[in-house]
Amino acid sequence: MAEEFRKYLDPRTLAKISGLDVKARLIVEGFMAGLHRSPYQGFSVEFAQHREYVWGDDLRHLDWKVHGRTDKFYLKQYEEETNLILYLVIDTSESMTYGHGPVTKLDYACYIAASLAYLTLHQRDAVSLSLFDREPYQVLKPNTNPAHLRSICQLLETARSKEKTQMGTTLHEVADRFPRRGIVLLVSDCFDRLDEILSGLKHLRYKRHEIILMNVLDPWELEFPFKDATLFEGLEEYPELLAEPRSLRHRYLEEVAAFQDRLKKGCRGLNADYVLMNTGQPLDVALSAYLATRAVRTAMPGR
Amino acid sequence: MTLALTVLHPWLMAAGAAMAAIPIIIHLLNRLRFKRVVWAAMEFLLAAHRKNARRVRIEQILLLVIRTLIILLLAAALARPVLTGVLGQFGRSATHAILVMDDSFSMSAQHRGNVEGGSIMLEARQAAVRLVEGFDPRDGVSLVLAGSRPHGRITTASYDHPYVLEQLEGLTAGDSTTDMIGTLEVVKKIVDESELERKVVYVLTDNTAVAWTDDAAGSLSSLMAAIAEKAAVTVVDFGQDEPSNVVVRDLRPDRSVVTSGIDTVFRVEIENHSDRAAADVVVNMAVDGQRVAPVVVGALPPRKAESRTWSWNFTEPGNHTIAASLRDQPGDDVAVDSVRVIALDVRPAVDVLLVDGEPGEGAFGGDVEYLREAVDPRGRDGRRVTSYNVRTVRDTEFSAADADGVDFILLANVASLNAAQAKALERFIEGGGSAIVFLGDQVRPRDYNESLYMNGKGLLPAALGPVLGTTDLDRPDQYTTFDVGAMDHASLSRLKAQQGAAGLGGVQVYKYFQLAPPAGDDSVQTVLRFANAENSPAVVERRLGRGRVLLVATTADAEWTDLPKLPAYLQLVQEMMKYLMPDVLWRLNRLVDAETQLPVSAADFGTTFLLEKPGRETIALAPTDIGGQRRALVIGDRERSPAGAMLDQSGLYAVRPSRGGTGKEFRLAVNVDTAESDLTHLDQASLSRRLGGTEVVYARGAEGLRQSLLEQEAAGGWARNLLWAMLGLLLLETLLAWWFNRDA
Fold first, then answer.
1. Cα Rg for chain B, rounded, in angstroms?
2. Which chain A residues are Cβ-neighbours of B40 within 8 angstroms?
3. What is the number of alpha carbons within 13 Å of residue B461 lying toward its C-beta?
């Protein structure tokens, strides 16, 4: 059964299934089928009461201060109060519509967004969704209601744009719109000016948001496997280019790697997580990255 | 120096040039044929393209140039380019080129392709000039003539090419025949002594079968094989297909000593060396330069010879000439062999000296009386019926002076000859005289054997053995006769044809010497044998020098045989005399490049003679000592004759004493050797067979030579270089393409 769910982590399999909310559930179930422990329980952020330790409890939640005073083991128990907001910021610009196979980068971004929304809402956290190209053009405010997932999925399913990416503007606007801190999960191919991206991210950090930058790229964009003469028709108002791919490949890969490198370094400088998302890879990478960041966020509430 | 690029296959070159466009077209087509891809990461691609564009363009242009060059080089190599001149010589070692020009008279044949009436010699000469003009200044050139003697004209490597060209320009076909063996000997010597690394021999000839005839020892093929080991030999065949040549092959009297006052019959032989019949062949005759009635031959079938007789009565003795020339014969390619001349020393009579060993008294009392009568018989009215003029001397009086000027010496029952006499007789025979020795009871066999036979080295054709038989009238069983059944000798053919061999079979021989001819001596043959038990020789012949001697085992008179009393004796003696008639024609009638000796009387030993050649060139000649206190004008001998005194032209040569001489002016006739007249040329296969399979390059005419040279140049030259270059470029292209695409 678990193996059956895991196949839904494969974007190619998901592409054959209709309904983004269904896909989101399948992704999360598939992801969780590989986990030993459910991510749904015991991770609220506000302390409620102590409970005496019994064998088998997670030692991470032991209250060492109580142990220091009483020499007894007590676990901290938390209220299931929503104070974590996941801001999903999805790039829907024209460049995101590229995909060499059945799954475009935008599809992949939607899978990520939907599945994380599903997971988050199940954790009783709030989820916000912003779609952007030149600027955010669709925004759903944070909400913890599980029914919110439907709105999110509907919005994602209609998300398409012919516009060029302008991440800088978008991130500044997101930072301004959402003053309450949370996790900003930015899903984009980042085909924009690096300084503007970093400037936007800086603004978000300034607003004390945790940032996860999921850089979605198609495998062909990463490998550039073309051999014969090819006319590349640029998206986002770029001109056409007739080129001999073999002679360009090396230089192209250098350019891509250099950009990623600079982006990674920029993220690291801002204490933001950078995750490269290859649309040819299973989606659990995205969920793992998110959960890791959430765990850090919950472990260090004062950060 | 010239510089020229020639291609053997120009159409391949043109096709190659067209094919060179293929990579360019492919390149352009590739630019038209591409996939379309919608691409998002354009910024990276454009950035990469901007940085790569210049390099990629250079790489593409480089590859395009290399690919175009490869095809161009392949096409050029297939077209077999030949660079002559400076570049063509690049990298080639200096060459010793030995030009062999066939200047024999057959090369004077009119070249049918030449509208101006030039000879094939002209064609060959022009081809040779072009060859020399194409040589590099480092190349040495030698020139050898296959006709003219001596053959070597330039025998070392000459770097003075203008001089070589000058020599070539002056070359014409002479009257000589091709002496290929002698020529190749010279060529071999040049090749052997040449110090240049590369040697090539060009034989420019009309390639007649006669020219390439080997001798019994196989000298021709072995010489060529030896030359071909060290040099590349090219035979350029300038011979023409379907040659046409009508020739006066021979003109000679029916006897070698021509006398005045009687009709002399001449035989004129005409040969048609063509594949077509010659019509209306007429031979113009001239005596002493005066035209007389012609000889009409009529139609002459192809490749056939016919002879006609023609007679003339010289009223005056002395030096006379006769010329036979073909009246203008259409399609007769060669002129020089259409004329034949003959020079004759017409005598008042044929001089016969009888040396009598036992003079007798009265008619037929002596040994020589029967013989004299048989040699010079008189008609009933006392009129002479032969042209023999007989003089008799005693054996004791016979001296060397008696031998001078006579044609025959007959010895009859001479006891013995002293050393001087024996020497005089031997010289007489060696010089072309004829002798008949009759034996008898006076003869001292021991002296004969010692001074005349000399164990086979003397003039006598057989040693004298014991005397057999008897003159006893009561012992007829001891008599013998001639074996007429075995009369195979040429001199007796007419006698044999008569009934009973003209009575020779009935002759009784009472006594005779048993003759013992030497075994295994080709110069000796038995003419007639006795019909005795041993079948012993009766008449034996020996050839000695230019003359001949007959030894008869019995007597010239009736002492030992009844033959002299029989009519058969007259016939036998006449036939033998006719057979032995000395060859006096040879001195005055020679072939081109032969030599001759013209004896000079003692009175003229100090006289200078002038030799006027047919070309009006005159050369002074002094009598040369030829041994035995004799002197002669030696003509045509390269060692003993003065420069120019050669019989190298056909026609009549005049010899006259300068002032103060006693002799009269006389003429020599020199004719071409008509063996050269058959102009049929050998094809490549026939030539190869004649050369014993030695590999030589065969080129047909000037064009064939040009092609052959180009092929030889191309074989080791530029075509191969181009292919190597192409291979190199292919490798380079592969490496570069890999290097440029190594990122992929």
1. 39
2. 94-98, 105, 189, 191, 218, 221, 235-236
3. 26
Q: Which of B559, B554, B547, B628 is nearest to B583 (CA)?
A: B547
Cis peptide before B23 (omega within 30 of 0): no
Chain A contact for B57 (CB, 8 A cutoff): no
Q: Are residues B435 and B542 in the same domain?
A: yes
Is the Cβ–Cβ distance between A234 and B39 less than 8 Å? Answer: yes
Q: Quick one: A143 and A262 in the same domain?
A: yes
Whether residue B77 is found in the same domain as residue B91: no
Is A250:B743 a contact under the CB 8 Å cutoff? yes
What backbone torsions phi and psi does residue B202 show, to the nearest 5 degrees? -110, 120
In a shared domain, residues A56 and A199: no
B296 - beta bridge partners?
B282
Average pLDDT for chain B: 87
Domain range for A291 is 6-33+82-299
Contact list in B for residue A233 (CB cut-off 8 A) is 36-39
Q: Would you tell me how many other CB atoms lie within 10 Å of the CB of residue B516?
A: 15
Same domain? A61 vs A146: no
CB B144 within 8 A of CB B152: yes
What is the number of other CB atoms lying within 10 angstroms of the CB of residue B479? 20
In a domain, A41, yes or no: no
Question: B286 and B272, same structural domain?
Answer: yes
Residue A1 placed within a domain? no
Which residue among B35, B60, B744 sits closest to A249, beta carbon to beta carbon?
A: B744
Query: Which one of B580, B615, B648 terminates a domain?
Result: B580
The confidence score (pLDDT) of residue B713 equals 67
Q: Are residues A58 and A157 in the same domain?
A: no
The rounded Cα A48 to chain-centroid distance in angstroms is 30
Of A98, A191, A226, the CB nearest to B43: A191
Task: Mark whether A50 and A111 lie in a shared domain.
Answer: no
d(CA B454, CA B468): 22
**Residue A279 falls inside a structural domain:** yes
B109 plus B172 within the same structural domain:
yes
CA distance A253 to A261: 12
My answer on whether B130 and B189 are in the same domain is yes
The shortest C-alpha distance from A248 to chain B (Å) reads: 6
Question: For residue B199, is it within any domain?
Answer: yes
CB contact under 8 A, A248 and B36: no
Task: Find the domain containing B316 and state its range.
Answer: 246-347
- pLDDT, one tens digit per residue, over A118-174 is 888 887 788 899 998 888 888 888 888 888 888 888 888 887 777 788 888 888 988
CA distance A252 to chain B (A): 5
- Of B557, B580, B603, the position where a domain reaches its end is B580
Residues 193-222 of B with CB under 8 A from A: none
Task: Provide the token pair at A90.
Answer: 């999805």
Number of domains in chain A: 2
Q: Do residues B132 and B99 lie in contact, with contact meaning Cβ atoms separated by under 8 Å? A: yes
Residues B457 and B552 in one domain: yes
Q: Are B442 and B493 part of one and the same domain? A: yes
* Residue A38, domain member (yes or no): no
pLDDT digits (tens, 9 = 90+) for B681-731: 999 999 999 998 898 999 998 889 888 887 776 655 567 778 888 889 989
Distance of alpha carbon A163 from alpha carbon A235, whole angstroms:
9
Q: Letter for the amino acid at B343?
A: A
From the list B37, B39, B743, the residue facing A250 with the nearest CB is B743
Number of domains in chain B: 5
Which chain A residues are Cβ-neighbours of B743 within 8 angstroms?
246-247, 249-251
Q: Whose structure tokens read 């059945």?
A: A102
Residues A66 and A99 in one domain: no
ipTM above 0.90, yes or no: no
Token pair for B74: 């392949």
**Between B34, B49, B51, which is nearest A231 by CB?**
B34
Q: Sheet containing B609-612: give its strands across.
A: B589-591, B666-671, B651-657, B609-612, B618-621
